[in-house]
Amino acid sequence: MNIPTKLDQQHLRPELIEACQSIVGAHNTLTDPADCWPYGYDNSRRHALPEIVIFATTHEHVLAITQLCYQHNIPLTARGRGTGTTGATVPIHGGLVLSLERMTKIIKMDAANRVIQVEPGVTNQQVQQIAGEHGFFWPPDPTSAAFCSVGGNLAYNSAGPRAVKYGTPRENTLGLRAVTGDGLELRTGVYTTKGVVGYDLTRLLIGSEGTLAIITEATLKLTPLPEDKRTLRAIYQDMDSAAAAVSAIMAQPVVPCALEFIDGQAINMVRSYSQAELPENAGAMLMIEVDGPQAGLDEACERVIRAARVEGCLDIQIAKTKEEVAKLWETRKALSPALRNVAPKKINEDVVVPVSEIPKLIKSLQTLSNKHDIIIVNFGHAGNGNIHVNLLTDPDDPEKMRRAHACLDDVFSRVLELNGSISGEHGVGIEKRDFVARELDAASLEIMRKIKLQFDPGQILNIGKAIPD
């Protein structure tokens, strides 16, 4: 990995540690390597030990710590709850880790304007609970919603199943408060749902993985809770049939709030872990949810069913009670335990292709599975072509990992051939950084590097992440 030598790991002098403690207090500072150790990794399983961990509890803390790091050229890695899978919060240069997990204040709940303002350490679930008390929700709903922080959601532009209808954090965030790499504080965006003054720095910072600025407040746009919801499960004889159904569903006026798919390999794997009844010849499954006003919801659901009933459809079930809803989702929920049992250290990558290209991608993945002798299990958000590709391997076996990385290289190449993207919502971090130049042209990368220098002239913020050096 090509890392700038000027930011090689350096030891923080005692006076700098004392300066940090004077800003946030000794109780918000970790210096013992054993205490710092947990803050050197995320769900990517990569690890690098920071020299010091600072817990900010206010915007002013973030500002002062960033200014200190800029002044003394200290590598600075901001992090939330560490649920990311790409190594974006791993402090590969050592230095200082700035944890935002204690910034948990709900600044303002403005139901009249459908807005909630929060600090970055507030969890996604807390936002949903507070918004729900007023009849609203925030559309982004990643799988780790109960634990992941809003700051992390924004850093990765993490979305989840509801993105197919309601969009990602970029579409559901009005404005930010942030601190740049040279210690300047700025406010971006608006408080209204419309506004075109200046460049859109809000959308630029969202998804930048902490390489441009550190977010300290977010103004989130809320959506009214739907009156009701219908849950469907459709079984298909093969992935081609399921993909045809996805295209048909997305081409009619009723947009589902969730459109998830599981391939045949995953269905077969789940059979031992789920009591759900699944046909033996099931080649793919779609989980579909339709929400909206109660009046007309049954008709909307019927429209989706008609679109889903393409050639190759084996069965469609609709849940009428909460118990039936839980039963229909049982297969999908049993997938993660099944995968953990078979390959507890699997590689999980999320890629995106146009919906019409899903069958080609799945066929290619089957071919690559045979070529590299790696079991591949696929599921994901079919409505926007976001596929989670799971390579069942063992990181402790060098030969298996060699085959897995060769397979992953081929997966990314095929995704780009299909006019797709190598990441849909997990971000880039370290794991995909060296593949970015395959997707982005040289001119775009050069502009991005110049933008990075404008926000972070000292090159201290999360260096070595997101884009190639």
Short description:
The chain has 469 residues and is α+β, with helices and mostly antiparallel strands.
Describe the 3D structure:
The structure is a single chain. The chain has 469 residues and is an alpha+beta fold. It has 4 domains: 5-102, Uridine Diphospho-n-acetylenolpyruvylglucosamine Reductase, domain 2 (2-Layer Sandwich); 106-224, 2-Layer Sandwich (Uridine Diphospho-n-acetylenolpyruvylglucosamine Reductase, domain 3), CATH 3.30.465.10; 226-269 and 285-322, Alpha-Beta Plaits; 343-457, Alpha-Beta Plaits (2-Layer Sandwich). It has 15 helices and 18 strands. It has helices spanning 14-24, 33-36, 59-72, 124-133, 150-156, 163-166, 201-205, 239-250, 264-270, 297-308, 322-342, 358-372, 398-417, 436-439, 442-455; strands at residues 29-30, 52-55, 76-79, 96-99, 106-110, 115-118, 136-137, 173-180, 185-189, 213-221, 223-224, 228-236, 258-263, 284-292, 313-318, 347-352, 375-381, 386-392. A 7-stranded antiparallel beta sheet has the order 15-12-14-13-17-18-16, with helices on both faces. Strand 17 and strand 18 (386-392) form a beta hairpin. The longest helix has 21 residues, at 322-342.
